């Protein structure tokens, strides 16, 4: 088998003429029997990289996936595209499980999705011994790494299963985000043999990133929702209580919203997720338990009401916006209390001291992201080990038109104060000394007699703290990896102190609840993606899609993605041949739905 066979399958089953960045290299490696490790951002098409080899290789491919919702969405989409697939998980009865296992043994499926816990079942291992398994694909592979942001010990059963399959299948591991240490850990723990590694880049050109500090969060969320009417969005909160309060507030605005957290029954969580997938709910307010593997393509915004524990988690969650390639907006609402909450979670965890130290380091990186004045997209790309590249030109920092102030004198005072305190204390105490606070701890250490005591007396403590965090984010200072991080100087400080470099900072907004820069992203503009003149047709196509989806008990995006509907509006196909040329319409989907959509387009053409 060669790559041209894969291209033929791509057109036939998925309706696309060419592979996206990185897909061809991974597929070609798998078809040649090589293990692979693919790091591809959400929406980049990771699943195609193992689904097409599964189609072309003999036997059945096992796909290890952590969440029931992901399995169902992917299996629904595959079957709609004419690819025989199924899943076995805890949502099935014993009878249903046995029926599916018999069907798998009879060779009726090309892909079988399973949870890692299923690999511990003796009945399942007996089935595996009877199957021809050319490929095992591990989705959300960061879950196998103890250094990743969502370590799951059950993933270690994958390696034990390998010993029972002969000949050894090819291994494919995929995730959206992984630092270099996590990549190496994935390869080692899954026993990948000289894997072909492909990292397609972390930049998401269709996402607008924004950090809003110290806003009135409720006022901001209410304004944001009003400016994005009818758009699907996820609002993440760090605790169950915060989810409940935020959900009650949004529902009070008259907006259809669901809630999702571990304190709700499994049935209630499933209802919320299903309603969101089917476009019956506009917004879901959730803890991070919601969303991993969610295949809903038309999420237009993700708001983090609280700061997540690290940048990997943040980018995984924010990346659920714009999976279809259409514009999406990602907003982080930051407040200092978020740091306190995340530290509490770390301390309450059962992790060992090395893991906790790593978690504090990751938390510090997240705080720096919240305070940086640099391009937000570039900051994330740099975090994951890629070269800086050009600023994105889209994020809130790149488009920020607020006045740029020279704060070199204030920065020098901060550096000198930290040096005088022998680089042994944290941000808050440093700020108290600079403000001349009447504080017992300041007096106990004798800092009230320091040359720098009270040198920023006229500034609020919050403003001094923000300045110090900004200096950390911009590389002048660094934080130690501990529960109570100490702020220290970097080499870069020398250039400032010797007047070889100036320090600049944007003026903080007067009204922090306002959208930064006074702008709304293209994702919020009703006519941004389809021409305004064809918006009526686009809405009609969505209604037809929803009617079909409801009749077949499927999420609408499983029928066609929004991007496919928008291309229909752009091309306005009048013949079957023209309709088949629309991206995302494979042979099976055209046979099922193509003529209905074509007829509707013809009606709007006259």
From TrEMBL:
PANTHER family: ATP-DEPENDENT DNA HELICASE Q1, DNA HELICASE RECQ FAMILY MEMBER. Residues 27-196 form the Helicase ATP-binding domain. Residues 531-606 form the HRDC domain. PROSITE patterns: HELICASE_ATP_BIND_1, HELICASE_CTER, HRDC. Pfam families: DEAD, Helicase_C, HRDC, RecQ_Zn_bind, RQC. This is DNA helicase RecQ. It is an enzyme of class 5 (isomerase). Its EC number is 5.6.2.4. Residues 216-367 form the Helicase C-terminal domain. Belongs to the helicase family. RecQ subfamily. InterPro entries: DEAD/DEAH_box_helicase_dom, DNA_helicase_ATP-dep_RecQ, DNA_helicase_ATP-dep_RecQ_bac, Helicase_ATP-bd, Helicase_C-like, HRDC-like_sf, HRDC_dom, HRDC_dom_sf. Its cofactor is Zn(2+); Mg(2+). It catalyses: Couples ATP hydrolysis with the unwinding of duplex DNA by translocating in the 3'-5' direction. Keywords: ATP-binding, DNA damage, DNA recombination, DNA repair, DNA-binding, Helicase, Hydrolase, Isomerase, Metal-binding, Nucleotide-binding, Zinc.
